[in-house]
Amino acid sequence: MKRVVITGAGTINALGHSVSETLEAMREGRCGIGALEFRDVERLSISIGGQVKGFEAEAQFNRQQMALYDRFTQFTLFAAREAITQSGLEFIGELAAKAGVVLGTAGGGVSTWDDNYRAVYEEGKNRVHPFVVPKLMNNAAASHVSMEYNLKGPSFTVSTACASSNHAMAQAFQMVRSGMTPAMVTGGSESMLCFGGVKAWEGLRVMSKDACRPFSANRNGMVQGEGAGIFVFEEMEHAKKRGAEILAEVIGFAMSSDAADIVMPSKQGAARAISGAIADARINPEEVGYINAHGTGTAANDKTECSAVADALGPHADRVMISSTKSMHGHLIGGTGAVELLACIMALRDGIVAPTIGYEEPDPECALDVVPNEAREASVEVALSNAFAFGGLNAVMALRKV
Amino acid sequence: MDIKNKVIEIIADQAMIEPSDVTMESTLEEIGIDSLGLVESIFAIEEAFDIQVPFNANEPEKSEFDISSVAAIVRGIEKLVAEQHA
User: Which residues form the Carrier domain (chain B) (predicted)?
Assistant: First the structure.
């Protein structure tokens, strides 16, 4: 089996338009959640979110590209440029033939659906733009990345709600680890912050109207975010041979299915995924220094997750640091695991653990070290990143310091 | 604006060239409009004139709508506007 390292990272999210801006915000415990700005927002009962501000797509893409790129594709291409530029890889010849792109998204082109339903239903139009289908399809972002960077290997999109990015990165990891390809572009993106996207979430009654406070006893729900996180996963010797900067090593992953309930999380399912990732990485639970929690800020997730971590790590659960950066960037749904992997990289490479902000009251059902409110300096050898999706689909990644 | 000038404007806009560079004899291929660009042009024409263009992207040559040159497209649009706005 090959060893797999990360040689490029890129992002855009409510905390910043680059990895360095995002990590700076996480170090400072800055909140990117604020008032939502889009058409008809006054008809929503939820009016906050981790919205990407100051992103001028027209300055990034030409008119023909704009006709084909939904906002989730725009975010993906923007983040992919940062990641692939950092990796220094040029996809030509045999590398191009083998390298592909596997991305996660839950909703794909949600605002394209929204805009065009509005046009035909509300405005009574009988004609929509010819590119509605290629613009909204869930694989649009992956396909445009493949075209932009000449990635001709295995390429597809994974859609498992809030675990989409972790499932996608797990696929890319497996492909590089098995020797199938020397490199893969992976990660995920989401852009549901439009009237229809938020209205749908509102219906579930799990959204907070004021803040995302994971693990805090007074937490009252999740807050949606948007953006993308993209990475270059590369076979270690391939990366070393060309002198690439290595951000972290990916050492394992596991997936599990609760097979129980369409929305309620299961402790057993989550614990099996955490233990599975530890076993796949061939480490002991005691080696885990940091866990980037799924930590949505809902009553159900946070207590179930803490309980699952306690089961999987045993007594070591009392020593591990576990934080939810969703308190800062919101829940990016299908893109969330990708942006959250950045917090793992920061913990491993920079020795800084991102905090859980908005933490106000201890909850006896979440009695772990949740790194409340302020980032912490710590030497972390191994980090896990949890994602537990609606539908009971779980995926956990394990990373090691290089 | 008459139909001819509006059609030329739409085609030029799609090809990202000046309207003055579009001649009536030009084919869409010469102007640099590919199949996706053609579908987008037809959409823009339908929007501009509020008409339905009988165009099937599966077999453009076999459509009843002639796209063999700018002149043919303009003639076709003039006919459709006359029929559908009668």
Answer: 1-81
Tokens of A346: 């920061």
Residues A265 and A236 in one domain: no
CB contact under 8 A, B43 and A67: no
Q: Provide ipTM, 2 decimals.
A: 0.85
Mark which of A214, A241, A268 sits at the end of a domain: A241
A167 is catalytic: no
**Domain edge (last residue) among A210, A241, A272:** A241
Residue A246 in domain: no
What number of H helices and E strands is found in chain A?
15, 14
The first and second tokens of residue A393, run together, are 């689909």
Classify strands A48-49 and A34-35 as parallel, antiparallel or unpaired. antiparallel
A282 contact B CB<8A: no
Q: pTM value?
A: 0.96
Please check whether residues A33 and A149 belong to one and the same domain.
yes
Catalytic residue check, A294: yes
- Mark whether A131 and A274 lie in a shared domain: no
Please answer whether residues A367 and A44 qualify as being in contact, where contact means their C-beta atoms are separated by less than 8 angstroms.
no
Chain A residue with CA closest to B14: the answer is A64
Pairwise CA distance, residues A370 & A36, whole Å: 28
Interchain contact, A130 vs B40, CB within 8 Å: yes
State the residue range of the domain holding A177: 4-241
Chain B nearest-CA distance from A230, in A, is 28
**Would you give per-residue pLDDT tens digits along chain A (402 residues)?**
999 999 999 999 999 999 999 999 999 999 999 999 999 999 999 999 999 999 999 999 998 899 999 999 999 999 999 999 999 999 999 999 999 999 999 999 999 999 999 999 999 999 999 999 999 999 999 999 999 999 999 999 999 999 999 999 999 999 999 999 999 999 999 999 999 999 999 999 999 999 999 999 999 999 999 999 999 999 999 999 999 999 999 999 999 999 999 999 999 999 999 999 999 999 999 999 999 999 999 999 999 999 999 999 999 999 999 999 999 999 999 999 999 999 999 999 999 999 999 999 999 999 999 999 999 999 999 999 999 999 999 999 999 999
Residue A249's H or E segment, with its range, is: strand A248-257
- Pairing of the two strands A376-377 and A352-353: antiparallel
| B12 CB neighbour count, 10 Å cutoff | 17
Tell whether A125 lies on the interface with B, counting CB pairs under 8 A. Answer: no
User: Within this chain, do residues A211 and A256 fall inside the same structural domain, yes or no?
Assistant: no
Distance between A81 CA and the closest CA of chain B, angstroms: 25
